[in-house]
Amino acid sequence: MAIDLAYSGETADLIKRTREFTRDVVLPIEDEFGGNITEAGGDELRVRMQDAAKAAGVFAPHAPVEFGGHGLNMSDRAPVFEEAGYSLFGPVALNIAAPDEGNVHMLAHIANPEQREQYLAPLARGEVRSAFAMTEPSPGAGSDPSALNTRAVRADGGWRINGRKFFITGADGAGFFIIMARTSGEPGQRGGATMFLAPADTPGIRVGRHIDTLDRSMIGGHCEVFFEDLLVPDSAVLGEVDRGFEYAQVRLGPARMTHVMRWLGAARRGHDVAVDYVAKREGFGSKLGDLGMIQKMVADNEIDIAATRALLVRACWELDRGEHASNSTSIAKTYAAEAIFRIVDRSVQMCGGMGVSGDLPLARLSREVRPFRVYDGPSEVHRWAIAKRVVGAAKRAQADAR
Amino acid sequence: MAIDLAYSGETADLIKRTREFTRDVVLPIEDEFGGNITEAGGDELRVRMQDAAKAAGVFAPHAPVEFGGHGLNMSDRAPVFEEAGYSLFGPVALNIAAPDEGNVHMLAHIANPEQREQYLAPLARGEVRSAFAMTEPSPGAGSDPSALNTRAVRADGGWRINGRKFFITGADGAGFFIIMARTSGEPGQRGGATMFLAPADTPGIRVGRHIDTLDRSMIGGHCEVFFEDLLVPDSAVLGEVDRGFEYAQVRLGPARMTHVMRWLGAARRGHDVAVDYVAKREGFGSKLGDLGMIQKMVADNEIDIAATRALLVRACWELDRGEHASNSTSIAKTYAAEAIFRIVDRSVQMCGGMGVSGDLPLARLSREVRPFRVYDGPSEVHRWAIAKRVVGAAKRAQADAR
Amino acid sequence: MAIDLAYSGETADLIKRTREFTRDVVLPIEDEFGGNITEAGGDELRVRMQDAAKAAGVFAPHAPVEFGGHGLNMSDRAPVFEEAGYSLFGPVALNIAAPDEGNVHMLAHIANPEQREQYLAPLARGEVRSAFAMTEPSPGAGSDPSALNTRAVRADGGWRINGRKFFITGADGAGFFIIMARTSGEPGQRGGATMFLAPADTPGIRVGRHIDTLDRSMIGGHCEVFFEDLLVPDSAVLGEVDRGFEYAQVRLGPARMTHVMRWLGAARRGHDVAVDYVAKREGFGSKLGDLGMIQKMVADNEIDIAATRALLVRACWELDRGEHASNSTSIAKTYAAEAIFRIVDRSVQMCGGMGVSGDLPLARLSREVRPFRVYDGPSEVHRWAIAKRVVGAAKRAQADAR
Amino acid sequence: MAIDLAYSGETADLIKRTREFTRDVVLPIEDEFGGNITEAGGDELRVRMQDAAKAAGVFAPHAPVEFGGHGLNMSDRAPVFEEAGYSLFGPVALNIAAPDEGNVHMLAHIANPEQREQYLAPLARGEVRSAFAMTEPSPGAGSDPSALNTRAVRADGGWRINGRKFFITGADGAGFFIIMARTSGEPGQRGGATMFLAPADTPGIRVGRHIDTLDRSMIGGHCEVFFEDLLVPDSAVLGEVDRGFEYAQVRLGPARMTHVMRWLGAARRGHDVAVDYVAKREGFGSKLGDLGMIQKMVADNEIDIAATRALLVRACWELDRGEHASNSTSIAKTYAAEAIFRIVDRSVQMCGGMGVSGDLPLARLSREVRPFRVYDGPSEVHRWAIAKRVVGAAKRAQADAR
Q1: CATH assignment of D245-396, given 3.30.1360.120, 1.10.10.10, 1.20.140.10, 3.40.630.30?
Q2: A168, B39, C311, D176 — which has fewest CB within 10 A?
Q3: D9-97: CATH architecture
Q4: How far apart, in whole angstroms, are the C-alpha atoms of residue D50 and residue D60?
Q5: What are the 10-residue block averages of pLDDT along chain C, 402 residues in total?
Q6: Is the CB of residue C138 less than 8 Å away from at least one CB of chain D?
Q7: How many Å lie between the alpha carbon of B355 and the closest alpha carbon of chain A?
Q8: Domain ranges of chain D
Q9: A296 touches chain C (CB under 8 A)
Q10: Considering only CB atoms, which chain D residues are within 8 Å of B294?
């Protein structure tokens, strides 16, 4: 047993093919439509790109082999997802975009055989999209999930759900919803949530407006969703009643990391574009890339990329060992979200006027990555959680010493 | 004689009225159209808002009194422009948006009586807009003005101008252009530029595409402009031949500062929106605004606002005394561009998901202010200029000591 | 009335003479003894330097004219103190070091005629030193003054004081103490403190060990002080009973600013040393000072110096107008303490191995300035106070709007 | 083959025993003497601690097994050295302090059998100390090794060496020197250096003054060393003539990483002390460690520790595979030196007045870690090297595409 950071030959090959597929097939489409996936074709484009990904043998690297995926563990997903993320449309092409990728991951862990057949299989194959309906408008569940307001109450042979959700990614056009609702306890208490599965056309589900956000590359947008006397049968319960928060953790740790992987790819693209620019552009008597202040930005980008990747390796390895990895995923997510923003921001700066224009992809990348410091837990919430563990341990040690 | 930072009663009154006008009349329009001035009505809206500003007695605070302005010096412009900048549309309403405001300033200093009548007077009154055609695409004049490529050569009774300009703010719809062209020397040499005035409908002037940039609030966009055998008479020369770079300095120092004033207003609005949000929003058992990590962001914003304002006071005072103030305007601009970005970025973060959405103005403010670190000289160029002065002085002192 | 940042001719002259005195007379002594004032001679050196300052006409710029000072207001102190601070020993030479300078300021405002004669006059003239005994070890009054633990209780014809103080600057060798003690209320409550004056040789005052701190330039060190059944008469009360916290504010706002002035001078010296070094030292094919990454550090230092100075101007002007200026002094102090640290840290870095060695003064400057982020209120406490005001105002505005 | 970050049982055991030895045996000595190793006993203390380490079975984890070491590769050294670094004296106790540890590493790779016997064996066993004489005063070899000025010229049966060295760690008391001297080419050229071995008592070697630096924990100080007609035989040549720069690389990459390991341990100790403090200390109505601004500092420390460790794992793994790892060691060193400084600086800040005093170890830790941003290549030089590779690759790619 010894430290090893090498990928198997098979994974290395998938990394390489994903890189080529992303750059040759996907990136030109992203650039043609300025990164706006709705304008580029939305679900029609998705199906077309996914067919190409299947043909190239790079489709669904994360999905169980039985459903046509490559069955990669978290450690191996990291470099593959990063390559896919090099284009903002790459994750959609490989069927590893949020929230479908995280939903596949969670369903593979929790769904019963019938649910796997009905929901997981078509999702893994790219036949439908899905949505994860957890976050709510103020004063409901936002950064603090315990504020969950949506309620499911027992009804004849099942449950009746009422509530309003907010920022539900991919809701418009989703084939089904995973719904987080309170089945016991009161808002502000940690316990008592349950997850439900429901086809999107179930009466009582209404998708409202798209929230206009800085990012533009998510199919189906970030929507308001209303559950109005939505009736679901007992078989709609995912896992067990009142264990929803626990299952959310199963989803959240890995989902944080796959966000990092994809966005790291996007940041690397920004960096590459900027390095290419400064290596070429003359100014002040030399290439811009030979000037010290530009070199500093290039080096800082390299450092941020390396550190993000290294933290990702650690967190993924812990997850693959079956650990909760709450601390290392919080650390990796917090560092990455800020580093990725810095990388893109420096890349913009290196390119000056071109950097803030649509003539290069940097301006749109800067918009795409900004929300990552908020999505999947704001940096402040992660820092709070990290510190609480450390300070709490110190308090306990002090108490023990007394 | 003693340090005094108080504004006169007259100025204090104008500050107050500008604040009220901006919040009551202008801000609602900005918010209705999400800060997109073209969608909000473009020049038609401009005229309407300027009429309202005239009625409110807040129009053209910077313009000479003879042309209907208030004739404020730089020191007094600072707080007034900041109030106008509180709305992204405020500067247009008061006729103090870039580039018109800087052009009024420069023409008031350099234009001869005929030019004042033909160009300055209608510009100051808001009857036309203008453009300042200096920057060029690579390898021409960008951050390094000495690379100026556009040429004017003697022609019968005047000059023939050929060249291509880039990022020319307000070009689409401008009534006239101030054109920077090389009349002697070669690209890479500092000397030999001349400024020319030309009505926009002069044959040989062609406005090309709008460059798609992060910011959206500048009327007339940032355009490509082509000069193709443009013929101008000798009377089109602004000031004297070959002194263009010198005049550009007259414009640049103050123009940098008025940029800071306006954008500082925008940053303050972002901060106010965020503070209002965290003072209201519950989370983690208290108001967000009572949590330490949020308090840190609030305080850092206050510090950045105060420091920006204080540096501005210094630079404006030097300019009002007739100094070049190259150093203090570079310092104020560099600090401000980065501080303003930080302020808005923190404000976004404080509001979480709302911050990156169109439900609050923060996402659009974050897009508006990002380019300021590039426009009017990237931070790197200013830092280089600041350091060169200091290190150069040290070298001279060492040589003297030998 | 208009913005004016110029100093009067008289002040300008004092600035110039202070600069020359500091560099010609004081700095060589500091450098000879590596900034360790105890090794350099302690109080004996102090008297010698103060005599020289008197001869040079630069002594006691802050003290009332009636006691031989120049009677400068806060605005005029700023540049004079900065020049004195250029040497770590300069403030002692001019009798404007902490805590004496702040004590002169406070006594001039609050002491009655007898106290002025007995304490203020000799202090202003440099005949004695003083100490301000407020801070206490945990769980007493540290960053949070309301935790004040030292108690004064009525005794026959006066007060009996018991308590333990900590980090009392200048205690060893001080001629008298200003003692903050609780006369009503309980620790944790804001009210109920009184200030007492007592000669150092009063029975019941015991000066303990010097706390070993990073800084070395304060005469009399930072000591532990014990009050053990210390009896003082009623005439020892400074001002009125139970108004101690209020008087502390009179002292704290200005004292914060004079700290900034002095330390800014020290930071400027560090910067000058570094600029001189990089202007001379060859490396990588040019002078270090012509390399972009070094230029960035030089420019950032210039920006930090300018911003600190500008914030100081603002806060001093408010204080001179008789305002509390709690917000602007907190802002200036917080920004300055961090900026001054950055300036010195960058200066160290510019000089590489020399920077961390005793061959240049930078290593010792880096030790001197670090504590400023803690002394006179840690940055976190100032930020908390700044944010509380802003968020509190927003809450009140929301309540009013309801 | 798959990613694995687990240590073998044997290594895990050595980590644990090193941790216990450091905390139980070494740390109390460091604390007693305030981290000043000279005052604590110098070489006498070293021998005593090393005997204890041998008894505890934790001595020389890095040295070849044949010389009594544990023969750990770089990956396994990382956690062991970090545990030793938890005390500033720990590395000396385990015989893994700079420069001996790097010298052992290099000699194990390059020395011939006689040299191994004469120099490596006693060094590995702790019988002597050593010095690596490379850096020189300006204008010689500092950050830019190609400026090497010390010369070795052919002399009867060997070489005559003349030159002056600077910042030679451990020189005072070293048993032998490894000397870098120019044997061909001119200063400013990269080639032509040779390494020589010489016992410290060879005539012509003179150790000058100790340079007074911020750090205090290195035995033998940082000295000036003079080579004055030093005569060494041909057998003194380490490896081959003119390959000195190449061998220096063999030493530098790993030596950078072991510096990081040790200093990371020191930073962790600082963090632990601060966390313990804030978990206990009351203020503002709660434990300091429950306040948001403190929590932010705690979390940022955790993130910096995790990222440093993760980058170290990567670089060590590359080195263990036999790669040059210039890029990943530069990245890890640059990130680590800055992160370690931040960690200690935040720890100081968390403890307020106690943090800047000798009552806690933080003030001395802050002095120890500051030079790391300079030692072993200033951050600026590493960033320059990182950027040159990236921009150079982009230029080549552009040339290929033409």
Answers
A1: 1.20.140.10
A2: B39
A3: Orthogonal Bundle (1.10)
A4: 9
A5: 90 98 98 93 96 98 94 97 98 97 94 97 97 92 86 94 97 97 86 94 97 92 97 97 91 94 98 97 89 98 98 97 95 98 98 95 96 95 97 96 88
A6: yes
A7: 9
A8: 9-97, 130-242, 245-396
A9: yes
A10: 292
